[in-house]
Model the fold of this input.
Amino acid sequence: MDTKLDCEIVKDLLPLYVDKMVSDVSQKSIEQHLQQCTDCMECYQNMAVELESSAQTPEVSDIKRFLKKTKRMYFFYGLCGLSFLSIFVCLIVDLALNKGITWSLIVGSAVLFADILVYVLSACKKNKGCITMAVLSIGTGCLLSVIQFTRYYLMNTGTVWIFRYGFPILFVWLGVLWLPLLFRTVFKWNLWDCIAFFLFLVIVGNYFTKCITGDFVWRDIFYTRDFIINALGEAIGILVFGAIGRVKKWRR
Ligand SMILES: [Zn+2]
Done:
């Protein structure tokens, strides 16, 4: 049967399955499908967790929620305290050495970026992957800009590299990370295919990076030693993960 149709049917039946209201035959086929389909398994686990929490008395779940919230709150207070401390120390060193705000600006933005990332990771329940990636993309771009601005304009060292190298290379590698995630989210590719696709993009990304830095030579692509250094590991990975993906699909 069409696996997509299978998934639809299983997902429709899951609420009944969780409540143990399906026939023995249906139960068996659903169990079989769950063992092979990570997507439906995830759905089932979410439902089971929901059922478990709703089965608890309201007081118990309220207390649990409160404890969880306080724990998270203290964690963030600790994180903020540490962040402020590190920025403060940098600021003192900066003012003593350069008489200006330079390194504290870079450390400050890096710490802020890390804090936001940790917060998003712990606060997000849905679309965790996409939201984390979005924060990572914007954050890395901002951080690169701050480093460039501070080094070149405030410290008068180095050159302007951000437009020639910084952003182009960042875009290439963000593409390498984003595309498999989008294919997984939008086209529901299985995990193994996504990993194989990611490895393929790593090879492409390597060559693009070489183009940007000016190290790319066309004949190198056909040069075996260059291929072994740059792409052999990834190519083997693509074959292995691609094969696992095929086997998983075929077994369904
Ligand atoms: Zn399924």
Notes: Residues 24 and 104 are 65 Å apart (CA to CA).
